[in-house]
């Protein structure tokens, strides 16, 4: 039996037994937050429990390293949709210690891609076409700096309302301990005070 077959078999039983009923909620986040975090498997259940987030509380966006690589890419669009269309009014960027993006070098991925059948000609063609393949596949040096960069990219986005608080945290994937990197309330309050003076 393939992995897909086992997923589909389980799904039939899941629906037939109405196990979905305990997950029913609305599309609007009850705690009015959107969380950007890493796709690391260790965080799948740990992060919600460590943050007291249950099904229906938050919009959860996952990618490698909780990185926002482009201010007008799909990650930022998802954050803006969560704010404007789904009622979120706070953003939390949560990186983690021991992230696979820490120190990631493009040469490792490019070598493995060639071993899996991607030709060197394809890679060269992408670079010739103006794609910064090496930049696209480069990680970061410190998780805290990456969280700060992602927070700043969100906060400085021209479409982000000034009253949205953007926080930065780092979680330990072994214990679930959260370390605060950026308290978004401080920046939001300062911005609101400055707007009142104008």
Task: Detail the topology: elements first, then pairings.
Layout (H helix, E strand, L loop, with lengths): L2 H14 L16 E6 L4 H8 L7 E6 L10 H11 L5 E7 L9 H10 L4 H9 L4 H4 L6 H13 L9 E7 L6 E5 L1 H14 L1
Parallel strand pairs: 1-2, 1-3, 3-4
Antiparallel strand pairs: 4-5
Which properties best describe this structure?
198 residues; alpha/beta; Beta-carbonic Anhydrase, Chain A; 2 domains; five-stranded mixed beta sheet; 8 helices; 42% helix
At the fourth level of CATH, the homologous superfamily of the largest domain is Carbonic anhydrase
So what's the overall shape?
A: globular
Mean pLDDT across the residues is 93
Cα distance spanning the termini? 66 Å
Biggest sheet, strands in spatial order? Answer: 2-1-3-4-5
So how many helices? 8
Q: What's the alpha carbon Rg, rounded to whole Å?
A: 20 Å
The low-pLDDT segments are none
How many DSSP E strands? 5
Counting helices, strands and paired strands, the structural category is alpha/beta
Count of the separate structural domains = 2
Helix content: 40-55%
Just give the CATH class of the largest domain: Alpha Beta
What is the CATH-assigned architecture of the largest domain? Answer: 3-Layer(aba) Sandwich
DSSP strand content: 15-25%
**CATH topology tier name of the largest domain:** Beta-carbonic Anhydrase, Chain A
Sheet with the most strands, sense and barrel status: 5 strands, mixed
The helix/strand order is HEHEHEHHHHEEH
Protein name: carbonic anhydrase
Catalytic activity: hydrogencarbonate + H(+) = CO2 + H2O
Keywords: Metal-binding, Zinc
Binding site for Zn(2+): 38, 40, 96, 99
